[in-house]
Amino acid sequence: MSKSGLPEGFLWGGATAANQCEGGYSEGGRGLANVDVIPRGEDRFPVMLGKKKMFELDEEHYFPALEAIDMYHRYKEDIALFGEMGFKTYRLSIAWSRIFPKGDESEPNEEGLQFYENIFKECKKHGIEPLVTITHFDCPMHLITEYGGWKNRKLIGFYENLCRVLFTRYKDLVKYWLTFNEINMIMHLPFLGAGLYFEDGENEEAVKYLAAHHELVASAAATKIAHEINPDFKIGCMLAAGNTYAKTCNPEDIWKSMEKDRENYFFIDVQARGEYPSYALKELERKNIDIGITEEDKQLLKEHTVDFISFSYYSSRLTSAEPEEEQTEGNVFATLRNPYLQASEWGWQIDPLGLRITMNAIYDRYQKPLFIVENGLGAVDIPDENGNIEDDYRIDYLKAHLKAMKDAVNIDGVDLWGYTSWGCIDLVSASTGEMKKRYGFIYVDKDNEGNGTLKRTKKKSFEWYKEVIATNGANL
Ligand code: BG6
User: Fold this and answer.
1) If you take atom 7 of ligand 1, which residue's CA is the nearest one?
2) Atom number of ligand 1 nearest to Cα 431
3) What is the pTM of this model?
4) CB under 8 Å to 331, separation ≥6 — which residues?
């Protein structure tokens, strides 16, 4: 144990996702994906919700993922900066359509495979262990237009092919893998989360649960394949976490908050315990939703649970049994305004103790190691006349969250493998498509309209985080 109480070898680092930083959308043989056709502006939410059909690029919209921050060409410079901060790990995701441009081919695209091999080797050069999200919201467009995205059971097989190729090729380069980013996002932004689009009159909830089942089976299949290829691989699930508080001590509110948490736990219950929880089966039965669970599915789920549980944490949530209560804006997950909390410029409520509460709740429930793979403050950064960015607000946010994280480990005994802050380099916002909503230690010169030199500049938080890592979290 080090001075901070965190274990030696604690995996400090940062996280990104292919669609929010790579760009190079048509290079290296890459195929079009759902994430490419999600525009910035007023059509963004209808498209992400699967309400507005957008299956190709057009002239009318601006699509921020196409170039993003051009990491496709600049990854060496970016990884060198991560190395300079002392990162022990770097969480990145694979663009599925770089490996299988259409998704259903039998042979992978060598150029795509080589691209990630180069990235992993670059990480190793800087002493950085890659942490790879197999899919961070990506789905090749052909799988959507031809098969309907994850509502089609065939996607399980295509995903298995992807995993088999990745695990074999990177057997000695990558150890930590996450199967699906924020798997519960499917219920909130189904086109983004699972390439789902709804026809008029379709039972959306039934489609979402069906697609969720396919992802859960695919995740267990991936875990099985991974351990067969390399028994040392560590496979994790990934939850958009944040516990739900009850607005009052009225038992009706308490019950409501429990139900809200179960909507999210349901996924991890399956991935970590290996079976559908009874409350979910009852709910599906009541709603007359058949997700087609087979005996083989049950066995696969039971025998191939995850090795660890990773999650993103930005905020706690608040709920009430009163339906007319007003929700805060800007959150993908509905929540009431908590009068005890401040909020970010985008209305995301800031609750460091909520991180400790969430960590304890997850650890109590599953008793598996945890990994915080996203946390951070999306804020407007304005360079001063010398081009410096004094982002003390970001340092304050992270400091408070890291203190809560250390308390969960040191005082409560939670087993935590690592912490990767979200958007360690500024990138495109998933919810809004903006560049203005920045999370990074590294500033990227680009604006919401796509103008800018893409130059990278270290912010004040860069040196601060470097010291945090160097002292293994003792100096916050
Ligand atoms: C998580 C996602 O939901 O939150 C990321 O996994 C996303 O992709 C992050 O970027 C922060 O959200 P936003 O909308 O501020 O980019």
Assistant:
1) 430
2) 14
3) 0.98
4) 315, 347, 348
